Amino acid sequence: MARTASSYVCQECGASQPKWSGRCDACGGWNTLVEEIAAGGPPTGLSGKRGRKIAFSPLDGEIVPVVRRTTGIGEFDRVTGGGLVPGSALLIGGDPGIGKSTLLLQVVAALAGGARATYISGEEAVDQLKLRADRLGLRSAPVALATATSVRDIASSLDAAGAADVVVIDSVQTLYLDNLESAPGTVAQVRASAQELIRLAKQRGFVLFLVGHVTKEGMIAGPRVLEHMVDTVLYFEGERGHQFRILRAVKNRFGATDEIGVFEMTDAGLKEVVNPSALFLAERERDVPGSCVFAGMEGTRPVLLEIQALTAPTSLGTPRRAVVGWDTGRLAMIIAVLEARCGLAFGAADVYLNVAGGLRISEPAADLAVAAALASAHLGRPLPADTVVFGEIGLAGEVRAVARADARLKEAAKLGFVRALVPERRGTGGGASGIAVDELRHVAELLERVRRSRPTAAREKIEHE
Length: 465
Known about the structure:
There is one protein chain. This protein is an alpha/beta fold. The protein has three domains: about 5-40; about 75-275, 3-Layer(aba) Sandwich (Rossmann fold); about 280-465, Ribosomal Protein S5, domain 2, CATH 3.30.230. The chain is built from twelve helices and 21 strands. The protein has helices at about 75-80, 100-110, 125-135, 150-160, 185-205, 225-230, 275-280, 330-340, 365-380, 405-415, 445-450, 455-465, and strands spanning about 5-10, 15, 35-40, 90-95, 115-120, 145, 165-170, 205-210, 230-235, 245-250, 260-265, 270, 290-300, 300-315, 320-325, 350-355, 385-390, 390-395, 400, 420-425, 435-440. The strands form four sheets. It has a nine-stranded mixed β-sheet with strand order 6-5-7-8-4-9-10-11-12. Helix 8 packs across helix 9 and helix 9 packs across helix 11. The longest helix has 18 residues, at about 185-205. The radius of gyration is 27 Å and the shape is globular.
């Protein structure tokens, strides 16, 4: 008879402990340990039975070309690297109600014309899926629907040649294996269920989509090993108050990482946005202090965004620093550089920073644009509306070069911008045609450009007084 052993597994990081405690020793999470019972003991070694020999292939051997399945949804195909690779597993996560199920239903409907598409839900009934398809105008698509949570039943239905070409499992947290005693959604169930389905997908050659819930921090719930097991990890992001949705690839074995696809949520479902830069800048106010256009890179795509800054006097001992769409620590560093290297004083002012449009940026190339927006807001002098800014700032105030400068400039020129404030580009040639490049070496030079701008009427009155 198999010996049973009990352990307490953290539902946040997957760490195991022999005894229950209120706090996980590995990740520090509180009340995350759940008892799980596993049959059998640890492996006893490889003595006795011999394994079969592995077939090796030379590095310079023949490469078999991969035929990808394209959906026809340009933004989705861009994020996946040009289409879906047969036998691959994709994990997609996002906040509740952000549109994950809507996106995947549109994807499988687009693929259903030339592939056998299956949508298996563990959270919704078949009739509910049909109601969503009615709203999206997809009822005529030949997609097979089912409701199931047992991995054994799902595997038995898919474990046949030609059973399916594309499979969606919504969601992996609802699945369970009947030979594990833990509840659905626990670390053991999520890990074992995903492993069984991924093995089956690679054996039968169908594309597997796994929908994953996210934690309150925005990370995919369950063990971190789940993201290592799949080939591609996608995050579906967006703010409830904005109609924009961002599909971001954070891992992709068959394409570029940090690639994004931009969608617009409408009554008829998600519609792809072909030119995100024009959409993010559509409602930009001109001649307003604190507004700066940043030419950024999202994967291989240049994207122009508006960065907004506002400074307001405060009587509090500790001024407020509020940030939306950027890193708070990075903002503190830029403020410190402007104070120490340029003489601007933010100690008696609240500072608010916002990336308009709901997109979150993380690249250091936004430093110079943030500094320009802060200086513009603090001095009350709007930047020229036809100017874009990008560059990294060091602690000494130096402006450092960033990657893909030419692609950023070409995107800015395409949208009608005529001037760019950029780092000094050593040996990379001139800028894009139709745009004047103003190269900066130090952040103090940026302040000189801002001070040359015409102040607002209110600021001009203050300076005269």
